[in-house]
Every structure is written in structure tokens, then in C-alpha cells.
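Changelog-linked ticket: iron/sulfur cluster example.
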Amino acid sequence: MTPDLETSLEHCTFCPRLCSHTCPVSLTSARESLTPQSKMSFYAARKLASEPWHPSAHGPEAASSRPLPIYACTGCGACTAACLHHVDPAQALMQARVEAEQAEAGPSALADLPQQHAQDLQRTAAALATAPQLSERTAQAGDVAFVPRCSSDDSEGNEAGPLREALAFLRVTDRLRVERPDFPAVGIAALPASCAGYPLYAAGLSEPFRLHAEAFAHAVEPYETLAVSCAPCTWLLREQYAQHGVPLKPRVLHVSELLSPYAEALPVTRPLAALSYHDPCHLGRRLGIYEPPRQLLRRIAGRVCELPHHREESRCCGAGGLLPRTERALAGAMARDRVAELAESEQPLAPLVSACPGCTQHLRRSAPGVALSDLLHLLDEASG
Ligand code: SF4
Ligand code: SF4
């Protein structure tokens, strides 16, 4: 069980950096100030010794324009998996971001995040409204409601991502129902349920996040189940809403959990010879969802290859924790480190697939020229 915040900070402050070898941020950056122990000690100095938050007031970060080290965490959970005390630095560092925000020490890269998030939601709504077939497919009370990812920072164009994803989900589930009439009734979640609010949460904007979570929870109340494509939002809905005092009525599934029990019924018209799979951290280490995506991929590909770091040992691609906004170059380098593992895969040229559209988008933007796809689109293409 994760110790409380104060105990966690004490454990880390006096720890001889036993988990440093696991942190993808400190490994890729080779910056000693970004090991889990250093980041936790930085926070402990402010929490327990009341040192000032503002970077101009203290420490090695003072001379640089870099964000505080507490923002150099993707929430991947690799350090926790290695910690004998079960400390979860990512959770502590998210609380640190709340306190930094209150002390007006947040990074300039996140200054307009609430406005950007509101615009992303509007763009998602506008994009979904352009497809007439979607208006007839809004989820009804008691249905499984699909929650598309938000359109934030979409390299394919802000409008394309959520719309393409919603259409892919409907096509795949329609094909499944032909073979399996017992497949549950599905539709697209009514707006504003298009993002669970992960960007607000990860920025430490506690009040905007709580307000967004309450609006989201109210919008999805009629549904029996939510099927979510984004891995961090799946985790947020399952584990963080309740902790933030926002009860959620429907059960929450990742799309792979909804679809995998019906995998054998998916018609496969265009099978792939092989592919490699990237475990999204919030899906794998945080929620233990390893097998459902692999089960679906085995249905459409002759061979599902593992990268050298996979399942519990999977290496983060740098997409989480708003790292692409606060440390863009570092997040890109992490993605390229992850893609470089393909060279050691059994099929180096096979497409790399993630079960989270956020990972796919970040990997695609950071490693152009590499064949990348996400689970839902691949299922749609293979069964179309
Ligand atoms: S998370 Fe655990 S292993 Fe890592 S620095 Fe803290 S106490 Fe040490
Ligand atoms: S959660 Fe991941 S990125 Fe954050 S400190 Fe731990 S290992 Fe590093």
C-alpha cells in the first residue's frame, strides 16, 4: 500500500536513489536533478522545510528557464514498481504541482492551459458535429458510451483525431454485432463527455479539474458503461475521480477491455503479418491491462512482437504528465528512445501499435517515418 504523502517524502529524501535506473525521464535526459529521488527531495524541501517555490529564489533550476523538476514526470509508475516501500512519486509530484500552482510557480508553458483545454473541447464538439451519422448514434440511457480522446495537440489536425476515432469505434462495434448479437448497445457519449480532464489534473489545476470532473460525471450519469480510448483518462476516471470527491455512476472500461471478450468474432478481411506492441504506462503498470490489447491484436496479426522492455518493464514514450508541453525536446527524445527498441524487436519493420491514441500521436510526431498506429484504427482497417 502506498504510504501517506509525508512518509513518502521522508522515504525518498533518505533513499540512496534505488529506483533511478527505472525513470525514463532521468535516463533519457541524463540529468541528476530529474531522478525520482531528486524530484521528491525538491518537493520535500518545500513541503517539510518551507523553502520557497519560485525558481528564481532557489536551487540549480534558478539560473535556467526550465520548469521546476516536479514537472519532469510522466506518471509512468516505473519507480513505484521498483520501490520496496511502495512509494508513488508521481502521485506526490502531482500534489506538488497543485501547491506550485497555488504559489504561482507553474511553468509558463502551462499558463494558458485552461483556455487551451476549453478550446480543445469546443474543437472536439465541432468536429463530432460535422459527421451527420454521429448525431444518430449518441449513446442512450443504459448504453455503453464511447468517450473519444480530446483533440489536444493533434499532429493529424485538431479536428481529425476524435472524429476518426469515434467513427472507427462505431464501425468496429457494428461489425462485431453482426457476428455477436449479444454485443451491448453502444453510442457516442453526449458532450461534454469527450475528455475526462487529464490535462487539467496533470497541470495541478485542482479547482478547474474538479469542476470539469463534476460536469463530466453529470453528463455520463445515464450510461451503464464508459468505453474510453485514452489510457490516462481511463486511469483518471477509475482511480482519481473518487479520490477527488467526484463519484462516477457508470463502470469504466478501456476500449480493449470492452472488445477483447468478442475478439474471435471480429471479421478479419485485411490481416497483418506482424506488429509490435507498446504498453501505455497508465494502462499497463497503473491499471494492469496487458492482455486485452494483445488478445485483439493477435486476432488481426499473424505475429504480435514484444519490444525489449514490455509489460511491467515497459518504457514510457514521454507522452504523459504534460511533458510534451513542459519539456518538449526531452519528451521527443524519450519517444525516439522507445522507437529505437524496434531495432531489437523480432520484426523491426513491423508497425508499432499502442492502445492509447495519446502515445501514438506523440510517437508519430517525434519519430516521423516510423510506421505507427493505434489499436482502434488498426482494428477498423483490418476488419473493414
Ligand atoms: S520511490 Fe522508493 S526507491 Fe525511489 S527514491 Fe523514493 S523511496 Fe527510493
Ligand atoms: S513516475 Fe515515471 S517519470 Fe515519474 S518519477 Fe517515476 S519513473 Fe520517473
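Closing comment: Example verified and attached. Residues 56-63, 154-159 have pLDDT under 50 and may be disordered. Strands lie at 144-147, 186-188, 225-228, 251-254, 272-278, 301-306, 352-354, 372-374.
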